[in-house]
Amino acid sequence: MRILAFDTSGSWCSVALLDDATTVQREEAVGNAHSERLLPMINALLHDAGAALHTVDVIAFGAGPGSFTGVRIAASVAQGLALGLDRRAIGVCTLEAVAEEAHCQHGSGRVVACTDARMQEIYVAGYERAAGNWREVMPPVALKPGALEPPLGEGWIGCGNGFTAYPELASQLGLGTVMPEMHATGRAIAAIARTRTSTSETDDPALALPLYVRHRVALTTAEREAGARL
């Protein structure tokens, strides 16, 4: 099975192709240039792998939370490719992808994934590894850093740039190890998507939508201060 996966939820543009047990990946720190770089990177990745786009079986993408524009780009490209190829599309939570990347690199099994949500908030979720899958201990949420409570049990680590934006979080949560450089990657998204291809989870391309978590992100500052909601 070939899975094409990508993430544009943060400053990195990451694309990967999983072909059975082999994964190839390309990454660039592109800032806000995802719309310019994503498709050329996908083409370059497929060229490097000696694969044609029509041989891809599944399209997987980082659904969010993350940059409002970034997650919309990923969802739009995933929809376009999946509909055009008549393939399945699987959205993966970017916080879970951060946990998966920590597992890929370090074998981590208990991860507090935390990214900077701007507006003096963080996106955060807790994941525990069990039987080759991630169990959601704390669902993705957007909140003020000071409102985050310590995870239960031992052996938790912190991952994601939220620990760079708010260094005090490590001691607040009682974490001995933090890896703020960890981010969602194409290969992590592909690995998670592979575990879901045999389940009954929805994979209709028309339903490949962003996971905003903070649904008020599209409102203006004045609207948010006035209490408006989407």
Write the layout of secondary structure elements.
Elements: E1 2-7, E2 12-19, E3 22-29, H1 34-49, E4 58-64, H2 68-85, E5 88-93, H3 94-106, E6 110-116, E7 122-130, E8 133-143, E9 157-159, H4 162-165, H5 169-172, E10 178-179, H6 186-196, H7 221-225
Parallel strand pairs: 1-4, 4-5, 6-9, 9-10
Antiparallel strand pairs: 1-2, 2-3, 6-7, 7-8
Helix pairs in contact: 3-6
Provide the descriptors you would attach to this structure in a database record.
five-stranded mixed beta sheet, alpha/beta, 230 residues, single chain, Nucleotidyltransferase, domain 5, globular
Describe the structure.
31% of the residues lie in helices and 29% in strands. The protein has 230 residues and is of the alpha/beta class. It has two domains: 2-94 and 184-225, Nucleotidyltransferase, domain 5 (2-Layer Sandwich); 95-179, ATPase, nucleotide binding domain (Nucleotidyltransferase, domain 5, 2-Layer Sandwich), CATH 3.30.420. It has a five-stranded mixed sheet, sandwiched between helices. A five-stranded mixed sheet has the order 8-7-6-9-10. It starts with a strand and ends in a 5-residue tail after the last helix.
| Tally of DSSP β-strands | 10
Give the strand content.
25-35%
Order of helices and strands: EEEHEHEHEEEEHHEHH
Shape: globular
Specify the structural class: alpha/beta
How many helical stretches?
7
Q: Number of folding domains?
A: 2
CATH evolutionary superfamily of the largest domain:
ATPase, nucleotide binding domain
Biggest sheet layout: 5 strands, mixed
Give me the CATH fold name of the largest domain: Nucleotidyltransferase, domain 5
User: Quaternary state, please?
Assistant: single chain
The CATH architecture of the largest domain is: 2-Layer Sandwich
Determine the mean pLDDT. Answer: 92
Strands side by side in the biggest sheet: 3-2-1-4-5
Assign a percent range to the helix content. Answer: 25-40%
Top CATH class of the largest domain:
Alpha Beta
Q: How large, in whole angstroms, is the Cα Rg?
A: 17 Å
Distance between the termini: 39 Å
Uncertain regions: pLDDT < 50 for 5+ in a row? none
